[in-house]
Write a structure and sequence with these properties.
The structure is a homodimer.
Chain A: H1 15-39, E1 42-48, H2 54-65, E2 71-77, H3 82-89, E3 93-98, H4 107-113, H5 117-124, E4 128-132, E5 149-155, H6 162-165, H7 167-171, E6 175-179, H8 192-202, E7 208-210, H9 219-232
Parallel strand pairs in A: 1-4, 1-5, 2-3, 2-4, 5-6, 6-7
Helix pairs in contact in A: 2-9
């Protein structure tokens, strides 16, 4: 496996190079994790396909929390600060990470973003820090970012077979959030029961929340999960 | 840029290693291209996010063509042969490429698949060869597979901002197929006009087809584009 991008291509780079790159990432991620833990911040790595609804989930969460928890975020995309701007408008202290053509975040990109003093202060004093990864159901799974938990966001519009076809990211998921359930009546080929079964086949410890960021249905369950994770971290 | 996976991370691998890997890929892609051209096969690299509707597009195309053109395909996913099985049922001679954890196809993976004598014969005698890439809006753009054209499939459910946030793949697109337009009435935040404008901002030579594989609306326009490309290649 090419652990540079999680692309599985061992022909491309020597095993030794791969190992040293990942071990450098792990060193930086451990450093980030120490900070998050000592600051009492729940750091979450939010992953999923482009358009799965990662930003919409965070917006809806901020609406339900209505200021009860202090939220901070970084939002990664190849280009634009659009997601960070949306989160700012929703009341989440946010900064963009534009990756150029990089298909995933790594610990050094997060670390570099935290060199910004305003973001760093906001994260240190936050209850939850959302690290919204690049939209990609493959590569982000490989890189530790110092997070406390991995959240995979999967929309019903992507179809029921995605967990089976892209199992790697689900193997590492602590929570799968199934989004856009308001669209189910208009998706003749999509059964929520089958989607759940397919997630169960590839997720080591099944934990699934189904919701619609548009209608707000199910979003309180995600907020409850956040509270439980915060309690467990104490 | 890390051209190993198109991940843009020049810190990771030396420029020389990147160049030699890409140049080896280009060599193999040129070899594939020679075969496709001499066999009179229109080879297309079909790219897009997981669940954008790549397989559904090819199924719907096969239905409209109803045997008029000979179709062959390879379908890439990290795991399972589900897509290739769907295409077989739609009358397309198909083979899966399971990439393990690789986030994109490269020329050697396509070349290796074509070592299968039955697939090789089917492709040589086909009118159109669909190379359905791994679901990923970032990395597949980097690797030449010997194709005649790049088709990017983008579903309206992914939102209007994806071309701006993931411009790299659109820079290389010869055609953008906007899918799932039957869902537009249920997507309050999605304007087809805005999506078109955003594609126009990042695509060098604008060519967009809008369709629904579910209802069949617009699919004949894709078939017409296939015919035009075949004519142009003669």
């Amino acid at each position: 496996m090419c652990e540079i991008c999680g692309c599985g291509d061992s022909r491309l780079v020597s095993i030794n190079v791969q190992r040293s790159l990942l071990s450098e990432n792990d060193r930086q991620a451990a450093h980030l994790r120490e900070h998050f833990i000592s600051d009492g911040v729940l750091a979450l790595n939010i992953m999923g396909s482009p358009g799965a609804g990662k930003t919409a989930l965070l917006e809806a969460t901020a609406r339900v929390l209505a200021g009860r928890l202090r939220l901070a975020a970084v939002s990664a995309d190849l280009a634009t600060a659009l997601d960070a701007e949306r989160l700012e408008r929703a009341g989440v202290f946010s900064a963009p990470i534009t990756t150029g053509s990089a298909c995933h975040l790594d610990a050094s990109l997060v670390h570099h973003a935290l060199h910004d003093a305003r973001l760093s202060r906001a994260v240190s004093s936050a209850d939850v820090f959302f690290i919204e990864n690049v939209g990609n159901l493959v590569c982000p799974a490989i890189y530790d970012l110092g997070q406390s938990a991995n959240v995979v966001v999967l929309s019903v519009t992507e179809g029921v077979d995605k967990p089976l076809k892209y199992p790697v990211i689900f193997h590492k998921a602590d929570l799968v959030v199934i989004t856009k359930i308001d669209l189910l009546p208009h998706l003749p080929g999509v059964s929520l029961a089958t989607l759940r079964e397919n997630v169960a086949r590839v997720m080591p410890k099944l934990q699934v929340i189904e919701l619609s960021a548009l209608t707000g249905a199910g979003v309180p369950n995600f907020v409850e999960w956040l509270d439980e994770r915060r309690q467990a971290a104490r």
